[in-house]
Design brief:
Pfam families: DUF4235
Shape: elongated
Number of domains: 1
Transmembrane segments: 12-33
InterPro entries: DUF4235
Keywords: Membrane, Transmembrane, Transmembrane helix
């Protein structure tokens, strides 16, 4: 399998793992937010009852969690794909 074919074959796998990763990241963020604040849900930018600091902190934390989970899922998925096919899906 050439690199172009590997990339094409990896697409459905990458799409599914991305969706699962997003769900996992959301669950992790929710648990982390509960531990760092007294609230069950993180503040939304359009909720007037929260201060700027709270909204921006929640957004930064959520972004960090999503980025770490995405990197872990992408890397793990690529390694699994390589084990199954012998080809690395990137590059």
């Amino acid at each position: 399998m050439n690199n172009k074919a590997a990339k094409l074959a990896y697409r459905p796998f990458g799409l599914v793992s991305g969706i699962v990763g997003g769900l996992v990241a959301g669950a992790i963020f929710k648990q982390v937010w509960r531990r760092v604040s007294d609230a069950d849900d993180a503040p939304d930018a359009l909720q007037a009852e929260y201060r700027w600091r709270e909204v921006l902190l929640a957004a930064a934390l959520q972004g960090a969690v999503y980025a770490v989970v995405k990197a872990a899922v992408d890397r793990g998925g690529a390694k699994a794909f390589e084990r199954w096919t012998g080809e690395w899906p990137g590059n």
